Amino acid sequence: MSARGLGAALLALALMLGAGTLPATAAGTSPSATDADRARSAYAGMQNHFYLPQAALYRGNYPPQPNDRTYSYHWPFSQAMAATLDVAALSGTDQSAVSARLTGLAAYWNGGAGLPAYDSYVVADGGGDRFYDDNAWSGLDLLRVYQATGSADALNRAEQVFTYARSGWATTQVCSGSAGTGGIFWRQQPANPPLLDRNTVSTAPNAELGLALYLATKNTDPNAATTYLKPSSQMYDWVNSHLRDPADGLYWDHVYVATDGSCAVEQTKWSYNQGTMIGAGLLLYEATGQLAYLTYAEQTAAAALTRYGFDPVTSSFAGTGAIFGQGSPFNAIFFRNLLLLALVDTANGSYRRAMQAYADAVWDNTAVRQTEQTGTLFYFPGDGNPTSGPPLSYVDLTRQAAMVEIYAGLAYAATTLPSAPRADPGTTSPDWLYFPQTQHFLSFGFKEFWLASGGLPVFGYPLTEEFTELNPDTGATYTVQYLERQRFEYHPDLAGTPYAVELGRLGAEDARARGLLTTAAFQPLPPGTPPTRDCEFVAVTGHRLCAGFRIYWHDQGLDLGDPGISTRESLALFGYPISEEFVDPATGVTTQYFERAVFEYHPNNPDPYTVELRRLGADVLTARGW
């Protein structure tokens, strides 16, 4: 996806409310359908066992525990509100639930002395301390409501929250050292007792809030850059300078005052800290176009998945991987921001697959997850780690809401993917073809190219709609569409020529991804290798075309207007050979790689199907978790 078009997509996913509905599929027939069902069941469990409708608030635990207060604190409520907004995006909850959450949220709002903000407990029952991170979560929720409804009240309240966040910036020296000033306190000062910690989680999510406000208002507010972009950038930069571990690029928890008055760092690497810095970096990338922010986000994501035990080969977390010890509330925030990154870094399927692996592991743990007619509840052990021991006899609202968020996020994100199925229009048009086999369209230039250049036998069915993607070879962004065996790319600089639509170099990309380029079959033969009766030598790459693969290569080609099928037309379709024939250890099939294709020899097939093209387009999408 192009950087300049990212803002709307980020807000549509980060602020997911009302941005679409799930495609019509039978329950359980796809991961998105399964996750949607899980989200709705977990939401039903939350509403049936925690919600107190007369007050429009929630209890903190179910069943209530002896020392519980009447209502939950603001932090659990903010996560229940986020869960409500997420499920509303699946069209499974009517908007009255969102209105009810806004009513409940108002119970924590303290407009008294000083800057107005949310207290940690219901104000009418005494209120409580104010926490800058908890205010940020609610500010982001309010922006989600604004994005969906255009509510000026929601936008105004989010702006007030960000004003409050800026008041928490440490403007005077807190401790001796380079981190002595800056950063947002975790709790409002003066506190009793004083708490001078300045955290990643109190600073980074407020940067996200400010940046989302900037993207939402920059076209209508001439002061948006000064009010939102500049302070948010300062927040991000402070965390990056003082809480980023240079060894692995992950973020520590907070700066605190040591006993000697110096600045010290508490070095736990919680998952939500990584997530909020990923999200802030992505929003800064959209706001400024500076690639360094995206690079940091990608580095943080890769390092975090490694640290938390994700195996990209098996798409699972090893053993009792460290991710489980983070707890579902922290992981919900982490994975939410990974989904944002997946919108930009479309070629990396690890983000969605990691989130799915965690979601499946918790659901499959029937000691923790209990589903009844009233919904699903999650009885985590006391430390929140579903693998650590026997579960508690009660459910914590924050953990319950977090699982709703995770399942709803996966289900909704699946609808934003180019691979999400499209409904049959029930009509026809000369501008497009609809394929019920895969529930996708081919339109305009891509349709004409498909029809003129081999159609179904050569390219297969479309597996996505058109979307924009960064080309790994050129670094340029093109409109693309994936089919079973190929990727179509539109090159507007070549419009009006036979090369306006080109094919992706999927053969070369697959060989590189599999680590095959250093193997023997991919090493070029000596220059001047003589041809034989069955083989021709291709000097450009130093490889041969032989026997049936040679015949197939010359018998197929794009239609460039040449008589018959010319060499340049075959070259445009398949590219040069980049390997010799070899038996692929992954399939046991005689195989040869080309720049744009992989040939396979299947001697048991009837003619003319002994040579088949590997489904490289489908393989790419599978690797991405699409």
Summarize the structure.
The chain is of the alpha+beta class. The chain is built from 19 helices and 25 strands.
Would you give the CATH topology of the largest domain?
Glycosyltransferase
What is the CATH domain class of the largest domain? Mainly Alpha
Mean pLDDT: 91
Assigned CATH architecture of the largest domain: Alpha/alpha barrel
Query: Would you identify the regions where 5 or more consecutive residues have pLDDT less than 50?
Result: 1-30
How widely separated are the two ends?
15 Å
The percentage helix is 40-55%
Tally the beta strands. Answer: 25
Radius of gyration: 27 Å
Principal-axes geometry comes out as elongated
Please report which band the strand proportion falls in: under 5%, 5-15%, 15-25%, 25-35%, 35-45% or over 45%.
Answer: 5-15%
Q: Which structural class fits the helix and strand makeup?
A: alpha+beta
Number of domains: 2
Q: Strand count, sense and closure of the main sheet?
A: 4 strands, antiparallel
Number of helices: 19
**Lateral strand order in the biggest sheet:** 16-17-18-19
Q: Overview of this structure, please?
A:
By secondary structure, the chain is of the alpha+beta class. The chain has two domains: 3-416, Alpha/alpha barrel (Glycosyltransferase); 432-624, no CATH class. It contains 19 helices and 25 strands. The strands form ten sheets. Strands 16-17-18-19 form a four-stranded antiparallel beta sheet, sandwiched between helices. Helix 9 runs antiparallel to helix 10 (291-307) and helix 12 (350-364) crosses helix 13. Mean pLDDT is 91; it is low at 1-30.
